[in-house]
Amino acid sequence: MTDVITSDGVRLYAEATGTASGLPVLFIHEFAADHRTWSRQVDALSGAFRCITYASRGYPPSEVPPGQERYSYLRQADDAIDVLDAFGIARAHVVGLSMGGFCALQLGIRYPDRVSSLLVASAGSGASPARRVAFLAETEQMAAALRADGMAAVSAKQAMGPNRIQLRRKNHHAWEEFAGQLAEHSAEGMALTVIGIQRSRPSLYDITGQLAGISAPTLVVNGDEDEACLEPGLLLKRTIPMAGLAVVPNSGHALNLEEPELFNDFVRTLIGAAEAGTWPTRDPRSLSASMGIANAGTGA
Fold it and tell me: For the domain that residue 32 is a member of, what is the CATH number?
């Protein structure tokens, strides 16, 4: 365990598991989880990799700094870099889920020299233009409920959300563990996070120019029943030059818990190809929906 002091003076709780000589992998958790959510990845992967997990600001045992101005999606990316710096890691493979996936994208945009690959899972909630207004209103409602009703009441509803019931069906024990950990979070920390990060971050559809500049090998992973993230996942595939897309059947949001073995294989596959230099850049000719007749005879 290491206490990381960020560049703006906030204490973060972080852990490194695995040998110091292993390839470093930084795991960034989602809004409804914390560093503990990666236990199935750390257990399976730490024999080959150096796994770094941490609790974001606002998530005990990390500090919950007061003041809405201390929370933003840009600051969250800076925190991730501060964690890498604290462990003396110059460059890492980054695995992010949901809010952590958005953070991973920001690392690819703002700190390209610090990332070796990006696995972006379940990212894009609230990004789709058709749902944008409703999503922004829901974040306000979430913050108000957290402050008025407390963590236990809000977490009980969130754990039964439309993209969480898949985990409950597949693995009731893992769902109970998720729900229990969620109930332990700081209500104020989550309220500050949902407004400062979730509500204030731009839609992926508004930053396609930045996304197109990501140069790291990228794997986008979505559950096919995670309605809020399916279309944004396609956007990421079509926009990031080195993006691959995997859609997991009969699955919701918490893919690292729902399908841990498959998720771990995704991590291994991406890192292996990134290290070998075999993860491809998309051929721009594949961006057409044409049958290809008009281009027949043009050669390879």
Answer: 3.40.50.1820
